[in-house]
């Protein structure tokens, strides 16, 4: 979480100003923002997700490994590395903890007699990178407080639905428990992290099977899961069905056991709680249980707070009848109208065009969208700029189109025809032909066009259609 002060909180510090452009010293004593920015959050139609937990679960699920967790006392095991530790210079990037692949952990012969059987569940890596890791960490950091805060994982809001760049956590109703860096109020879990953890765990438990059966790429898995259709061959696995898939796929009791194992190992590294012995391990279990209950309370509510599926689940591997209509991809050129318009009207036009990028489904091997200035005929964004709808929407909203005196639609069509002629020459040279159809959309900001201008536009459109086979 990146906790940024508001503009009003930042003072001009001339004393530490560096005219050479170097970094100045960080200002000390600024109040923490009550609405900090959470970084690494991905916008989806079915709720914001933390990318680290999502990708971590998938990556771990492709190579599932486990780590033994043994509760020990310092006197009984002095000189023996704690679970998850390794000797210096061992070169083991896994810190010596994870052993084996797709099998139960084994223990060295010389340690069998000295281990009294106080085992926790072996920690699985795809649990450690998702919900169990979140719960275990939250338990430790919250439990170090004298009075652990009774704060639910905070949700957040993106700055823009069309161009989501910043995800800001919501302020809490209780001002004494504001979401900030103050150690007496932070929950160390957010709604995005839990949602990403759910998706990462669900996909992580299935990804190995799908990889062996279908060989899907990561991009294909994500595109299918975050769509109405779901995973081909396993259509119930889709983000809009997150709640029921989670409850039907994952054993909640196993998450709690895994969280206990993670918290124990993590505590050995951080010494957050002095409970690393078998005699007082219950204190750790209690802290984990509090964090676990908060996580499960929010995870079980996703079905009611996230948008539902709009398309019924297919009963077979076939595409539902409602999706069998073939929609040919198109290249849409939108001619914006900046003539005699206010700044607000221009913003409205750009937001409308940005929304078209999503409605068209701009994607690889799909539709494209370009932007033309209707006043001077310049092509501001070419259709081959990107095949990602979100990137395109952000680019459209960022275009600096100013109010101009007159609309020149004929000039715009002339410029567009020259561009299409250039593209055709490139296709002939490269022995390639774009299959997309061409569509031109003129925007008019509530003005009535003169009859002569309408006739000129109609004549130019007829010529345009004859030339381009429309």
Question: What does this molecule look like?
Answer:
This protein has 470 residues and is α/β, with parallel strands linked by helices. 37% of the residues lie in helices and 9% in strands. It has 2 domains: 7-305, no CATH class; 326-468, von Willebrand factor, type A domain (Rossmann fold). Helix 3 (131-143) crosses helix 8 (282-299). Residues 11-26 have a biased composition (Basic and acidic residues). Residues 78-96 have a biased composition (Low complexity).
Short characterization:
The protein contains 13 helices and ten strands. It is α/β, with parallel strands linked by helices and 470 residues long.
Q: Secondary-structure blueprint of this entry?
A:
Blueprint (H helix, E strand, L loop, with lengths): L40 E2 L6 E2 H12 L3 E5 L48 E6 H4 L2 H13 L12 E3 L8 E3 L21 H23 L4 H8 L16 H8 L2 H19 L11 H18 L2 H4 L24 E7 L6 H18 L7 E6 L5 E3 L7 H9 L11 H22 L6 E6 L8 H18 L2
Parallel strand pairs: 7-8, 7-10
Antiparallel strand pairs: 1-2, 3-4, 5-6, 8-9
Helix pairs in contact: 1-4, 3-7, 3-8, 4-6, 7-8, 10-11, 12-13
């Amino acid at each position: 979480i990146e906790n940024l002060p508001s503009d009003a909180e930042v003072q001009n510090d001339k004393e530490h100003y560096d005219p050479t452009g170097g970094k100045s010293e960080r200002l000390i004593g600024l109040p923490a923002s009550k609405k900090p920015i959470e970084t690494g959050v991905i916008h989806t139609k079915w709720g914001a997700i933390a990318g680290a937990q999502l990708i971590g679960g998938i990556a771990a699920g492709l190579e599932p490994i486990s780590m033994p967790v043994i509760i020990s006392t310092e006197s009984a095991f002095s000189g023996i590395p704690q679970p998850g530790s390794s000797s210096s210079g061992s070169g083991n990037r896994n810190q010596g903890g994870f052993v084996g692949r797709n099998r139960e952990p084994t223990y060295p012969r010389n340690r069998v007699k000295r281990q009294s059987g106080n085992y926790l569940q072996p920690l699985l890596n795809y649990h450690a990178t998702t919900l169990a890791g979140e719960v275990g960490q939250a338990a430790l950091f919250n439990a170090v407080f004298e009075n652990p805060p009774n704060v639910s994982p905070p949700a957040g809001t993106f700055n823009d639905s069309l161009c989501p760049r910043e995800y800001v956590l919501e302020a809490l109703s209780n001002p004494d428990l504001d979401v900030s860096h103050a150690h007496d109020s932070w929950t160390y879990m957010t709604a995005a992290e839990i949602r990403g953890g759910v998706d990462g765990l669900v996909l992580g438990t299935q990804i190995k099977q799908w990889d062996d059966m279908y060989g899907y790429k990561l991009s294909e898995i994500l595109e299918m899961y975050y769509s109405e259709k779901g995973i081909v061959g396993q259509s119930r696995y889709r983000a809009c069905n997150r709640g029921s898939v989670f409850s039907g796929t994952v054993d909640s009791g196993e998450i709690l056991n895994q969280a206990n194992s993670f918290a124990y190992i993590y505590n050995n590294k951080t010494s957050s709680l002095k409970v690393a012995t078998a005699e007082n391990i219950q204190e750790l279990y209690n802290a984990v249980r509090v964090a676990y209950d908060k996580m499960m309370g929010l995870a079980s509510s996703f079905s009611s707070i996230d948008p539902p599926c709009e398309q019924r689940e297919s009963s077979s591997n076939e595409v539902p009848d409602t999706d069998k209509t073939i929609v040919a991809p198109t290249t849409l050129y939108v001619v914006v109208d900046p003539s005699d318009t206010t700044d607000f009207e221009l913003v409205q036009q750009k937001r409308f065009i940005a929304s078209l990028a999503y409605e068209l489904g701009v994607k690889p091997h799909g539709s494209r969208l370009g932007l033309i200035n209707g006043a001077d005929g310049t092509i501001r964004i070419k259709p081959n700029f990107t095949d990602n709808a979100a990137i395109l929407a952000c680019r459209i909203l960022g275009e600096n189109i100013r109010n101009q005196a007159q609309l020149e639609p004929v000039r715009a069509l002339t410029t567009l025809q020259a561009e299409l002629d250039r593209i055709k020459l490139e296709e002939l040279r490269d022995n390639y032909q774009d299959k997309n159809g061409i569509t031109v959309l003129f925007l008019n900001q509530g003005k009535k066009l003169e009859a002569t201008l309408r006739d000129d536009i109609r004549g130019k459109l007829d010529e345009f259609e004859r030339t381009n086979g429309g």
